[in-house]
Amino acid sequence: RARGILGRTAGGHMPVSRTSKHTSRMACMAAGVRPPWSLVRARGILGHIPRFRSTKWAHTVLLLLCLLSAPLTSWAMPARPYRAAKAAGKAVGALASGGGSGSQVGWMPSRIDHFSADPRTYQQRFFLNATFYKPGAPVFLCIGGEGPGLTEDVVVTGGLHCALMVHLAEQHSALIVALEHRYYGLSQPFSDLSTPNLRFLSSRQALQDIALFHEHITALVALPSDTKWITFGGSYPGMLAAWARSKFGHLFHAAVSSSSPVEAILDMQGYNDVTASSLEDNLVGGSKACLIVVEAAFAALGKLMSTPAGRGQVERDLNVCGAASSPPILQDPRSRALLLEGAADPLIPQSNDPACTHPVCDIRRQCALLTNTTLGTPLQRLAELNHIARGGECLNANYFEMLDGLKNEALADDRTDRVWFYQTCSEFAFYQTCDPGSKCPFTSLPHLNTVESYTSLCTLVFGIEHSTVAELVNQTNAVYGGRDISATRIVWINGLIDPWRAQAVTKSLDPTARPAIIVPGASHHFWTHPALPSDSPYVVKARLQIAEFVTAALAEPKDDSDSDSQAANPPTAVSFSSTPRDRQGTMVKGSVGKRLAKLRQETRKAKNADPTNYILDNNRLPGVPLAPFQVPVIE
Hints:
The protein has 17 helices and ten strands. The chain has helices at about 25-30, 55-70, 160-170, 205-220, 235-245, 270-280, 290-305, 310-315, 335-345, 365-370, 380-390, 400-405, 415-430, 450-460, 465-480, 535-555, 590-610; strands at about 105-110, 120-130, 140-145, 175-180, 230-235, 255-260, 265, 430, 490-495, 515-520. Strand 3 (about 140-145), helix 3 and strand 4 (about 175-180) form a beta-alpha-beta unit.
């Protein structure tokens, strides 16, 4: 569901189809989309798939339906750490300039644990497009992250994260590749998401995957040894793009890091502080009057929360789901905190888009409604905004229902809720509080949205205590350096109204080698989206600045020793075992497809040689019981 419309993707309400092993389902999964008929199911619940007979005709029709119905999806940090990432609903009417078909999908055998002698591997999905590639040209890598699985569009149009990258690839004759992040999409190491199985989910493991992918593609395409790679990413993938350059400077020549909060933090007051400043930003239609109304509405909401009668009124005014239940939904303080977050959700500027068409889809439209005094009190205006934003649906504030969803270990269509929440508990936190004394425009009294309200979920869901979460956040910053990253040839871009900029690099450490660009009026990595006529001149300028950076970076000689980490060594790689030695290091038409076919053949041989290491559904390794959760060591 679109960000700004309340509705968690509760894992407990996403049953896995019983026909998931049927070829009909596999056809859709191979296309990177859910079956088209499931699109009409309410609230994103995974639809059951009819049991087609195993005929070529039925499978062909199904695959065509899947391709025709494939949405343009993206991955972006959920504004709330325990909710599923937004699936982009922004359609693109045409391919990126000079684009077209040419996408190839492949599977790379990647180690489950790069930091031990454990020999087990899993199949990690990647995409490749050689449409523009010329011998000796660079490689542009779009890094996958949290959220729905990648689709072939990621190397054709670029989607919402890498559209600019695809455009620049044409200019520089670059090879376009994209790597799906472990535990997201179809790149699943295990058959379930139990806490022991999640222990191999970390940015450090993901960076080793990226380094291994460099070796894999170099062998697969027979790239010259002096090929320059540039990493691209927005949000968490933007963090990985910068860290790949920082930790593996001998592999990655430069990085374009968009909206990347590289400094982990336990209590992220800055998120809602930036939200407050965005609501009064005239450039996007905000105003001081609008911010005052929001503050007044949530202050009134907080007062009503303090009494049973007041809570009853809130349940009616905000149309809370199960308002007539016994005991009342809002009797539990944790459900009250969830309601306050839900009521604030439409006002989060993370995905603000001036080109949207929904009545309250951006700050300009929201503030126009909130400052309309004919609609009643500030709280009544807030209730009206929520009603419109949710399309008349009730506001779900049931804490225990949300908790059950997070505890569900089943592997379903998109389990970003559980998987990304694990990463917040074990690495980043990023818990967006509304603390008294901060600039948070929402309810701070009673103080319900606390750090403990988040870390208590870490304990209940994964067994990770509050003190451990804090320790892991410190470890993350010790490993990566927070905002103090010394690697060169990284450009940092952030939107001024994006709440995630609170933890990002916003000041140039070196205007030439490490420039930082602030884009007025722009939300979360908005400049990476496909270009539209409605884009502001600031967004257009940011794209030009990024293009200039890429051109300048490619003009610099490759420096194999350029890294800020002497301890970061290349991974012990599971190499592509049949590097073509009878070919020159050049790209010829059709060679990538032939080599990918050979890779698939070798993968099948590996399965036949040791069938116990695989299950046939999606090339997933079986879940192997592991030790209980332990604090990861700094590798």
